[in-house]
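Async update (no meeting this week)

Hi team, since we skipped the sync, here's where things stand on the single-chain job. The sequence we agreed to prioritize is pasted below, unchanged from the tracker. I ran it this morning and attached the output directly underneath so nobody has to dig for it. Comments welcome in thread, and please keep replies under the output.
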Amino acid sequence: MTNEAADVVVIGAGHNGLICGAYLARAGLEVAVVERRLEAGGGLSTEEATLPGFLHNLHSVFHDAAEHMPAMADLGLVAEGAEYVLPPVQVGLVLGDGRALTVHTERERTLRSIARFSERDARRWATVDDDYHEFALSVVVPALYAPPPTPSEPVLPMEQSPEGMEHLRMSRQSPADAVTDLFESDPVRAAVLFQLAVPRGVGPDYAGLGMLVPLVVTGVERSHLAKGGSHNVAHALWKALIKAGGRVRGMREVRRILVEGGRAVGVELTGGERIAARRAVVSAVDFRQTFLSLLDPRELGDEFLERARCFRLDEFSLFGVHLALAEPPRYLAAAFDPDIDRAFKVGIGFESTADFRTLFEDIRRGAIPDPPRLYACSPTVHDPTQAPEGFHTAFCWAVAPYNLAAGGAAAWDRAAPEYAERCLAAWRKAAPNLTPENILGRRILSPLDIERKLASMPAGGVFHGRTSLDQIEAFRPMPGLADGRTPIQGLYLAGASIHPGGGILGACGYIAAGTIAGDLGIKKWWES
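Output:
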């Protein structure tokens, strides 16, 4: 029985689903977004997870595309409450010998920090920035918000210049090989690789992704912090959708996508209620869930299903320890570089390419990484509104496997408390003031907890699928589907399983909206 109808039904109210829905609603379509949770936003989650008044961003903190995201201006998100803070000290690495390396929004400060480790590397960093900054800004960033070209299309123009050929050479390297060629200092190499794993989902030995190294060096994708918490961005998107005439149906879980005559015609909810889609169904949940759980396999064919099963999930997840604090972390390395106490993203246990290699060896054999290698952050250093006056929040993420060799994913329920203590011990060694007296409350979030909470992050994977050479650009999630179209007429993808992938980019929903509008013959108001 059909209880409701809309022109477009969107499955999932993560940021990509909300963006796609808001663009289409402003184009004149009647849009209904269906979300199994009460809270919209997916990974844009902010909760009082420890004590009242302490706001913890549990899944998404480092927003690298905030100043490039078309939705910010197109949907008027600032007016709806989405404001960002740009921390001037973007990254800091704490080293075991008491030193620290810091990366800043101001290039000269970064170069001065690097020069303390290697004057040659400081010069090299400046050269790479000079060579690639304009290219990254004018070519790479816009490419995030457009359907990907065929694999050969960008190659031919690059073959015409020495700079282009160098970029092509680097595109055949792994990130670890690229940083080794470029830089001589282990901490400088580590500072680049550190920024590729989180929030980009790229491992050090991922073949063919060395071309991302210049993107990190140029700093054109600067990490921002959502003021008041990441959920404010979700709320702004939700309000933009409602203002455009769309609607969100929370606490409504989709059981299956309805297909008639090879065309998607609506969704059925777990309670049996149906919502008809007059023109399109959009899935903003992950690729595997869409095709292997929500669709009748008879609608797809054996070959497609086999290829869908081969889509690889994220290789790693994140183990999180979130703290309510009386005072923020104070690092011993501040005696060497005071800016480390103001770094937005602090690396602990990352000092060389070898550290990344051993980390991923642990992950691939299902071992809890030892020692813990941490991404630490105190959001309230940059936005005091996220805690009661005079108090602070902080968290550390440890890159970790989802499946443990001893006991699988279920073993995390037993292992999490002890591993949290090990993470805190590693953090406390770098910041001794993280004493029991300073820690007012804590919340642990294991890879299994992530999957339990957010079904669209299978295996605790925050990127909706591995960011490897065979699963990016025109190959994400497979050839022919990167722009959001699917083999089923009227069914589209808008989640991070399509190009350009995970992170708070707002690109997947934006690209899907353009594809849908084009197929339906609707004017793309955002291009006028």
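Quick observations from my side:
The first strand starts at residue 2 and ends at 11.
Residues 2-38+250-312+462-527 form a domain with the FAD/NAD(P)-binding domain fold (CATH 3.50.50.60).
Reply here if anything looks off.
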